Amino acid sequence: MLSERLESLRLRVGRACEISNRNPAGVTLIAVTKTVPVDQIQAAYDLGVRHFGESKLQEAIPKIEALPSDVAWHFIGQLQSNKAKKVAELFTVIHALDSENQLREIEKGRQNVEGLIEVNIADEPQKSGISTETLDEYVKAVLQCHHVRFRGLMTIGPNLHDPEQMRPFFGRLRKLGEQVGAEWLSMGMSADFDVAIQEGATHIRVGSALFGERR
Predict the structure, then answer these.
(1) Under a CB-based contact definition with an 8 Å cutoff, are residues 188 and 195 in contact?
(2) Dihedral over Cα of 178, 180, 183, 188: its sign
(3) What is the rounded distance in angstroms from the CA atom of residue 46 to the CA atom of residue 171?
(4) Cα torsion 45, 47, 53, 58: sign
(5) At 28, is the secondary structure helix, strand, or coil?
(6) Please, where are the H alpha helices in the chain?
(7) Strands 148-154 and 184-186: what pairing?
(8) Structure letter (DSSP) for residue 45
């Protein structure tokens, strides 16, 4: 079942890339493993998945310890400043940079990490992320860090039922990325990553479409 879902995902990625005249090799599938047991993650690894995403440090630690060392772990949840240093030590990429306190804590460590700035693209008060108005200033702060390599932007768009309604938000993030020199755009999840890829996503975060609905 897992192998069938993974093949279906790869076909969807391929179709989205064909529509937008992109190379599928330019899209990284991040398998979101929140609440997923280690044996299921190992099964995905055995099928060739190498990028996994976790949103809670404590849940991630035993999984990181159990999986092979060539896994690229992506932190995709809200990043508490007091955990930022430890997250940077354990994860390859942080998708949730949105405060200077986080940067100060990461700088206290010795581990280098790839960083994406989370943008609150729809200005939703209940969501974390940098506002579009303050993005330029925050990019400058990230670029001054010794242990964070700025790679691009991430967003969690509004919860809309029709994936096509997400297109303006993904397009807006792409334009912001062009303005700030982003190499990577992390956007799109199980329901809408096809549209995100068409709008320029380089990283998609997929959980339920791969592992099934969360328990």
Answers:
(1) yes
(2) negative
(3) 34
(4) negative
(5) strand
(6) 2-19, 38-46, 57-66, 81-90, 100-107, 135-143, 167-180, 193-198, 208-211
(7) parallel
(8) H
d(CA 137, CA 125): 20
Q: What are the tens digits of pLDDT across the range 35-61?
A: 999 999 999 999 999 999 999 999 999
pLDDT digits (tens, 9 = 90+) for 139-172: 999 999 999 999 999 999 888 889 999 999 999 9
Please, which contacts does 130-136 make with residues 24 or more away whose CB atoms are closer than 8 Å?
Answer: 130/98, 132/172, 132/176, 135/176, 135/180, 136/179, 136/180
Residue 204: left if φ>0, alpha if ψ -120 to 50, beta else—which one? beta
CA 122 – CA 212 distance, rounded (Å): 28
pTM beyond 0.85: the answer is yes
User: How far, in Å, CA of 183 to CA of 148, rounded?
Assistant: 14
Long-range interactions of 74-78: CB distance < 8 A, separation 24+: 74/30, 74/203, 74/205, 76/30, 76/32, 76/154, 76/186, 76/205, 78/128
Q: Which two tokens stand for residue 29?
A: 């599938």
Whether 185 has a pLDDT exceeding 80, the answer reads: yes
